Amino acid sequence: MEVIKRTAEMQEISLRLKREGRIIGLVPTMGYLHDGHLSLIKKARRENDIVIMSNFVNPLQFGPKEDFATYPRDLDRDNKSAESVGVDYVFAPANEEMYPQGYDTYVEVKGPITEKMCGKSRPGHFKGVTTVVLKLFLITQPDRAYFGQKDAQQAIVIRKMVTDLNVPVKIITCPIVREEDGLALSSRNTYLSSEERLQALALPRALSAGRDMIMKGETDPQKVRLHIKQMLESSPGIRVDYVVVVDGDNLSDLSAIKGKVLLAAAVYVGKTRLIDNIDLEV
Ligand code: AMP
Q1: Which architecture does CATH list for 187-276?
Q2: Contact (CB, 8 A) for 94 and 16
Q3: Subunit composition (predicted)?
């Protein structure tokens, strides 16, 4: 495995691999790898000749009051994990490599899919995400790129960017990996105290309760949403940011529960913001 820090070098390697006819899979991450990240890498390993994992905490996607400075980082440990699951190249640029002085170009998907949910709570977040992801695509030249359903809205926004800009990359969304007790794996879980870690279980539990309502025949999205919201609001240590029950393809509002449905929520547990979702087909 090679660790590449320069954008020019990464792009040269990727373009050479493409010329040689190799199929490249990219797994973009912000590092501090857990089994969720590793599941994406393993799938990329099975489906491509070359696997590139990017490890970059992208300052553009953090708000001024968010956790960019304190986001957990451990490049050495990440490199060992990445190598153990067969990554060929880790691309780990410094901020100045990605955004040198005078950097001025941004990619933004406009409209409701970036304005609701996390887009509403984190203004500018998805603009930061689409900008870095398109840059990573141009630097690493992937045939396929792997994203987690954990960030369901992110995956939908990236699909939209790729469609709108005719980007020749196949976007592959992978299922959420959870702890045994149901909490979705996240690098931010390291912020939780042991008490908060227990309180955080309210999030997957409330979403599961919403899914159970639908399985039992509830077709009113508002009733399901309210039930999830009330469960979260009555859980100790939890502050609700948002709860939605929306179309799983494009996040639009539903008049009735049918087809692809996404139950998604964001909550604060203490100071830590956690997101989770369940998608289902009715
Ligand atoms: P991050 O490093 O948090 O930006 O995540 C990098 C990629 O891993 C994103 O596509 C995430 O959606 C994905 N990911 C994060 N957590 C999980 C998880 N628990 N299960 C599956 N994928 C995940």
Answers
A1: 2-Layer Sandwich (3.30)
A2: no
A3: Homodimer.
